[in-house]
Each structure stands twice: as C-alpha cells, then as structure tokens.
Design goal:
mainly alpha
C-alpha cells in the first residue's frame, strides 16, 4: 500500500471539493443573504487542507492498487461529510452543534435526506441551496467525477471506479475507457438535472425552487427548501414531475445511455432488473392506493390515488420526498412502504437499498433451491434474462445479504441501547442504511430529538449504506492490511 499516493489523491480530491462552495457563494452574492464569508472561508479552508496533503507528496506517483482505492474511497467519504459540515457550523442560520451539523452533512452527501432541521423555509437561500447541492454531489459520487477528469489528476481510474461503483455494476463500462464511462455518466446526470429543473419550472415552481429540487430529485436525496417538503406546493403537476424523474433516477444510468444511443425506450423493458424495479413500484403503489381508499384515510379515490402513488414511488426509490405524513397512515401500509426501500433502486442508479439486481438474484436462487429439492441431480442455472449468472456472483450476493442483515442487527441493538423504542430504532436504521430518510415513530419527520450517541450510530449507518458495506468492512479485515 502506497500511503503517499493515497495522501496525494486525497489532497487533489479536496481541491475538487472546494469548488462545491462556488455555487452557494454565488447564491449568497445574488440574494445578499449575508452568507458570503461562510462559503468563502470554507472554500479557502478546503483549498488549504488539500494543499497541506498534496504538496509534500506531489511528486510521488505509483500505480494505484485496489487496496489503495478502497482506502481512498472510505477516507474521502468521511472527509466529504466532515467538509460538508463546515459551512453548516460557520453559519448561524441554522445554529447547529457539531454533531447535528455532521449528521445533516452526511445525510446530504449520502443522499439519505434525514434531517435535524426545522424552520427550513426561513434559512438563507444560499444555505438552502447548499443542502440541495450536497445531495447532488453525493448522488453520483464525487469520486466518479474525479475519475472522469483522471488524466488531469493522475488517478488510477479503474481502481477507484471499482471501489466506488455499487455492487454488480463494478465491471460495467459504457465506453472503452473508464474515464469516458465516468464522463458519460455525468453528462447523463447533468442532463437529467437540467430537464428536471425545466419541468419543475413549467409545472409552477419558482426558478430557485425548481433548480434546488432538481438537485435532490435526480440524486434521490429528498431534501427540500421547505419544512413541508413537496407537500408545500399542493400542486399535482409538480408531484407528477417528481414521480417521473424519481423513476428515471432509480433506473440504471447505463440504460439511459443505451436508450439514447439506440434511440429506443424498449431498452428499459428488455432489461430484467428495470422490469422488476418498475413492477415492484407498481405493486406497492397499487396496494397503497387501495388501502388508503378502503380504509377511509382519504374520502375520495382521487386523493388516495394521488398520495398513494407519490409516496410509493418516493419511498420505493429511496428518494424520501413526502407530501403527507405516511408514518401515521393506518394499518400495515407504513411498514410495507418502508420494506420497499430495502429493495431500493437499480444498480448504477442514485438510489439506495440493497439494489433490485441483488433482490432478483436472491429470489431466483431461492426458487432454484426449491427445484433442487425436487430434482436432486439437476443442474439448474440462475438466470437474469436469458443469461446464466455465475455461482461466484450468486455467492457474492448471498454474502452481501448476510452482511447486510448482520450490520442491520448490530445498528438496531446499538440504537435501542440509547433508549429508543423498537419501531423508531428499526425504522431509523432502515431509513439510514437504505439512504431513504424519513422513518417511523419519533423519526417520521425529523431526527432532531435523538441523542448524540444515536446520531453517531446513524452517521456510521448512512456512510456504510452509501458505500454498500463491503467498502468499509474490508478495511476491518486483518487480511486487508497484510502485505
């Protein structure tokens, strides 16, 4: 492991991160909200820190190994959360303690959307925008951005991409060169963000809100510039736009690339993971609408349809936007919707959860085991579409699932040890490890009332969920540190 190389890369990445302060700095100047010094000092501080890391080792160039890449990814996401908290600490609006500032920043960069804030409507515009930007940057992963410009940085692209990319998408390339792949992903990401902002504006949002909400919609983050979230607008057109772009963001971005290149939307339906994703969302929405109407939660079918579809899509994609207090809906529905977040979005999307492809493989493997009990000598492959999946991939998915359950149990017990009841603790861990945001019980709207130890447990949970567990746990393995 080349520690000097890791230090050099982290310094360069901090230089990139400092640029994140430029847009809220511009918003502060435009609105004259008094926050320019906050973002200016944050920018200079990150540049200085990046310089301190980079300058002593700027001439140390070594090939980046996969082990080095895992260390870079984990350290950088930790640094990203810490750096993201700086402006929230420096501004007096809101006046946050260090733990709350870090919780809010980590929730932003991991696109979780859990918040400790109230009075969001009264925040300075630049701070409102900054919260949305944190989610947008975290959505695709700033490390993928670094890979896109890796010829300039001198970073080993394929190693970082494998360490950062989620699950089964690690070996997927849209173009022959990994840097070109990352650029293609970011072009699609930026393009969808621009289209989403235009659609929100056309639907009736003010320009500032349209841009701000497009950042959190495409990243499936769930932050809003209003305490009432999407419910603030009471506008069906806005909600339709939100649902459409949440679904697009929950699909594998490689499919968007292929659909554009082939000029055919049939690409989506031919993909087994995309079909499963859409069918799961459709089923959850149908159950939600039927239950809301039949239980009398809403007097008319139109209201049940409108609220049921929005919340099913929002929670199923792990966006976490709200138009109503779904946590207080009757019966089994809140828990059912929370369970859909465990499946989450497709691999290669900005969604959280275990990812649809893993859910599909677990389902197919379960069916195969049943068939093996009946036909003991049969060789039955696990297939996705028409392609057989290797046993190594199936084993890896089972390993991930077992690890996920184990981590979930540990975090659940840790939260309950802080004094939380079972419903609140279970839903808080689920909402954070799946990068969803709103939970049930005491965390249905805000996490502000949790104790500091509980928030620290959830900070770690959000980071592990964003890095898909193994990127963190591999560093705890003794074998990782052996030469």
């Amino acid at each position: 492991m080349h520690l000097a190389n890791i230090q050099r890369i982290l310094g360069l990445l901090l230089f990139l991160l400092s640029g994140m302060m430029l847009l809220p700095l511009g918003v502060a100047w435009l609105y004259r909200d008094g926050q320019m010094p906050v973002f200016w000092h944050s920018l200079l501080g990150l540049l200085a820190l990046g310089g301190l890391l980079w300058l002593p080792v700027r001439h140390r160039h070594h090939e980046l190994r996969l082990k080095d890449a895992f260390v870079v990814v984990v350290l950088f996401w930790c640094l990203l959360g810490l750096a993201g908290a700086i402006p929230l600490l420096l501004t007096g609006h809101p006046d946050l303690l260090p733990t709350d500032a870090l919780f809010e920043a980590v929730s932003g960069v991991t696109t979780t959307g859990a918040t400790v804030l109230s009075g969001i409507d009264r925040l300075p515009p630049s701070v409102q925008f900054y919260r949305q930007e944190l989610q947008w940057v975290g959505g695709m992963g700033i490390i993928v951005l670094a890979v896109a410009v890796q010829p300039l940085l001198g970073i080993g692209g394929i190693q970082l991409y494998r360490a950062e990319a989620p699950g089964t998408v690690k070996e997927t390339r849209l173009t022959p060169r990994i840097a070109e792949t990352a650029r293609a992903l970011w072009l699609i990401y930026v393009g969808l963000t621009a289209l989403c902002a235009l659609a929100y504006r056309y639907a009736g949002m003010e320009p500032f809100d349209a841009i701000a909400h497009s950042l959190s919609t495409i990243s499936l983050g769930g932050f809003s510039t209003h305490d009432l979230n999407m419910g603030y607008y009471q506008n069906t057109s806005v909600e339709v736009v939100c649902v459409l772009f949440m679904l697009l963001s929950g699909l594998n971005f490689a499919l968007h690339f292929m659909a554009l290149r082939q000029g055919s939307p049939a690409v989506y339906w031919r993909n087994a993971e995309a079909r499963t994703f859409l069918l799961v969302i459709l089923l959850a929405a149908a159950i939600a609408v039927a239950h809301l109407y039949l239980s009398g939660t809403f007097a008319d079918f139109a209201s049940a349809l409108h609220y049921g579809i929005f919340q099913a899509v929002s929670i199923g994609t792990t966006a976490g936007f709200t138009t109503a207090g779904y946590a207080y809906w009757p019966g089994f529905l809140p828990v059912l919707l929370l369970f859909t977040s465990f499946i989450g979005g497709c691999a290669g999307s900005t969604g959280g959860g275990m990812k649809v492809i893993r859910f599909l493989l677990l389902l197919r493997q379960g069916v195969r085991e049943i068939h093996r009990l009946i036909h003991t000598n049969a060789r039955i492959p696990v297939k996705i579409g028409r392609r057989a999946v290797s046993d190594r991939v199936v084993d890896a998915v089972w390993g991930f699932f077992a690890t996920y359950v184990g981590v979930f149990a540990v975090m659940l017990l840790a939260l309950m040890a802080t004094g939380l009841d079972q419903v609140t603790a279970f839903s808080a861990v689920a909402a954070c490890i799946n990068n969803l945001g709103p939970g049930l019980g005491e965390v249905g709207f805000t996490y502000a009332d949790l104790s500091d130890p509980a928030k620290w447990v959830l900070i770690l949970t959000m980071l592990m969920g964003r890095m898909e567990l193994f990127s963190v746990l591999v560093l705890l393995s003794p074998g990782f540190w052996r030469r």
